Amino acid sequence: MNPVEETKKYFFYLNELGLNYIPVDKTLRKLLQNNIYLAENNLEKIKNALANCERCTLYRVRKQSIWGEGNIDSKLMLISEYPDREEDFYGKPFVGITGELLDKMLKSIKLTRKDFFITHAVKCKTPGGRPPELEEISACKTYLLKQIKFIKPKLILALGFTPPKIFFTNNPTFSSIRGKLIKLKNFTILFTYHPNYMLKNPAVKRLVWEDLQKFRKLYEQIFENS
Ligand code: SF4
Which of 124, 128, 172, 195 is least surrounded, with the fewest CB atoms within 10 Å of its CB? Predict the structure, then answer.
């Protein structure tokens, strides 16, 4: 039984009985609207829900929520952390110096942005660029999970400390999962450092390079030897 569909049917039934107003408070109404949007079996509707999302307080500081960009038919996905100020301004992931570094990272494994659908774990920028809080991640993760459900990637490259918080409830340390090819449901995911972190901590460049080689190797196994 789908609870959203059942709720909708119940509302239609009440409407048939002549009730055309349900006195719910503002928060519950917003929640119902968002969940009904997200239950729709259509990427465009989810995209629209995201554009108008107020599921957490980050909507107050963003210029825009960011859907992502790239090839939605691709079986490769790249997940970043959360938009920075520049990304929020331009409405797309990886702009400026961080984007240049990402391009170099991908080039080192003979890939480009066009090979991926690229998005963020959390879709709105945060005040002062602070990491998103757990309740913000929890409110937002439905969008990323829906994107994964529709795009059906086989291989995901996840950059930074925020993406693991979407996929693991037991809060593993970053060092315990970084650089491992982890099979989750229908895809394999590799977590490594974000280019922003690399810019501030050049010592991790070597680790990222090693992680990318693992990613490339699995990419070849999946896509070139099949
Ligand atoms: S961060 Fe996510 S949940 Fe929060 S307002 Fe933005 S899109 Fe909605």
Answer: 128
